[in-house]
Amino acid sequence: MKPETFYNLLADQNLPLSDQQKKQFERYFELLIEWNEKINLTAIIDKEEVYLKHFYDSIAPILQDLIPSSNIKLLDIGAGAGFPSLPMKILYPQLNVTIIDSLNKRINFLKLLAQELDLDDVHFYHGRAEDFAQDKNFRAQYDFVTARAVARMQVLSELTIPYLKVGGKLLALKASNAPEELLEAKNALNLLFSKVEDNLSYALPNGDPRYITVVEKKKETPNKYPRKAGMPNKRPL
């Protein structure tokens, strides 16, 4: 997808980009490629592929009308090179975005990126999702949590649901739809007082299938969740 195609597709969906936003995406691409030579950020380095499979793919929650253009608090778990939250932040500057990632090198990249793109209200923390979720400054503080290809729902729900306010939503972006994955996660979702509200399917402009599972938090998460770092993966609920 050429940058011009990207701009036109957004304009067609009533999301025209300003010159500044176009420059932000361009600079994002340049820094991603530059830093990718030092630390492993992405296997996708072709410009047209980055615009399609990173930038366009990341803004799907906005294109699917799942995220409002207001000053909501959004947490991105395991965002890697900033996907999906930072392309959404460029599109909706009023979002308040927090990223937690377990690799400090990636956090350093994200800090520099935010500075270069002149992004306000973005916060980056190095550490494990399990640990921050037990901190009152993070627990039950967010309207949305996003995760793109991070883990199976059975594990992902324990890592993310505790961060949500009651009524908040987890948006899990995936490239494959596994109905059995949601069946497997049924017990975890019950224990975490949360429920699958929707499982959206759509296609990227090149025809590749994509899915977003929307999970709503119904009640406060019991204090014992999430368990210690590593446990959700080792012994899923």
TrEMBL record:
Pfam families the UniProt entry points to: GidB (PF02527)
Highest taxon, organism lineage: Bacteria
Annotated binding of S-adenosyl-L-methionine, by residue: G78, F83, A129, E130, R148
Localisation per UniProt entry: Cytoplasm
rRNA-binding is among the record's keywords: no
Keyword Hydrolase assigned: no
Main location: cytoplasm
Enzyme Commission (EC) number: 2.1.1.-
Stretches the record annotates as Disordered: 218-237
Alphabetical list of InterPro entries matching this protein: rRNA_ssu_MeTfrase_G, SAM-dependent_MTases_sf
Similarity annotation: Belongs to the methyltransferase superfamily. RNA methyltransferase RsmG family.
HAMAP family in alphabetical order: 16SrRNA_methyltr_G
Function: Specifically methylates the N7 position of a guanine in 16S rRNA.
Name of this chain's protein: Ribosomal RNA small subunit methyltransferase G
Organism: Streptococcus mitis
